[in-house]
Prior knowledge:
By secondary structure, this protein is an alpha/beta fold. It has helices at about 170-180, 225-230, 255-265, 290-300, 320-335, 345-350, 375-380, 385-400, 400-410, and strands at about 5-10, 45-50, 65, 85-90, 95, 105, 115, 150-155, 160-165, 195-200, 205-210, 240-245, 275-280, 305-310, 360-365, 365-370, 415-420, 420-425. Helix content is about 20%, strand content about 20%. Its main location: cytoplasm.
Amino acid sequence: MFVDRAKIIIRSGKGGNGAVSFRREPYVPEGGPDGGDGGKGGDVVFQADSSLRTLMDFRYKRKYEAENGQDGMKKKKFGKDGNDLVIKVPPGTVVIDEETGLVMKDLVEAGDSFVAAKGGKGGKGNVHYKNSVRQAPNFAEAGGFAKERSVILEMKLIADVGLVGFPNVGKSTLLSVATSAKPKIADYHFTTIDPNLGVVQIYDTSFVMADIAGIIEGAHQGAGLGFRFLKHIERTKVLIHVVDVSGSEGRDPVEDFDKINKELEEYNPQLMKKPQIVAANKIDMVDEDGPEYQRFKEYVEEKGYKVFPMSAPINVGVKEVLAEAAAELDRLAKLPPEEEYIETFDFEKDDQDPDYREVYVSRDEDGFVITGKQLQKIFNSTNFNDSGSMRYLYKYIEKSGAFEKLKELGLEEGDTVKVIDYEFEYYDEF
């Protein structure tokens, strides 16, 4: 089964906590702090692997987690860093952040990789908090948070030439004749529901050709399997537009030609900039000199496209179509690549996390609540049996302006304030 889309949850490793420890040696009755730092949490890394062909594995496993960093230890020993988690995907996979809908990375070539979620930093041990006033700090820094996000994996076929056209016009037959591929072929719509690839050998060159499953009207809006079909066309360099010129199903070839191009343009206007070769298939069923075929040929040529009469089942005109595709690929190879602007995920902004230092207040039936990301980390670092550590937490909340905001909500002395999962009574002087 060809699976070309999956949604998974990734989670980096949490940073290890710094250690609270003191030297305990003979003849050193008042040994100083010696708590080591915690290790960094593992990153989540995506890497393109040429041995993979589909996203099938992600149908059965949906959550992926890197290893947490180890906590610091006594004698200033650092905790071990967590191992990175490398998730391998097929070349041609686009990784998208589900929350923003922005592309994180397009892994085109085998070996391409990137860090999708950084592990949390290791917390500092209590040895870092000794100063002239605080000789025996009884607290340490908590490890940095793990980063969790939902990502969408989309695989787009990497092919040089893409076959487009309505269902049942002969694309699969052309692929089978031109290559060693063996697509399922029958006389009904949507025989092809998965893309098929084949390698075309012509003269002294070769290229990869993909049979993109049949497009229908409304495909750009997701009709049928529209999005699933159309996205595979984006990577192709040249399009072969197969049209049934015999009108064997009562269709008008001119209308079919226009409708397919309209769907391509509506989905992505860039697709209309690709070289397009028109293969007038089933030519053996019409009079090549007759008015109907000539009407189609003249109409298409007026729009600037070359028309090649062809009958794929009996291998008539196939070589000419493939030769033209090879010539177009050769021409494109000599041109500088066009850069298309795509708004991508901002990793720098994500790392900075502008909400990190924000403190939020609210009121519920049990009292007043204070939350925040940096507050959570300081809370995790607090030793609630140490007055100095408690005072540091309280002063942080005070400087953040949280108490002033709570007073606007009606906070008075003696009221209960909840910070994460710790409750205390509020007084102006701590």
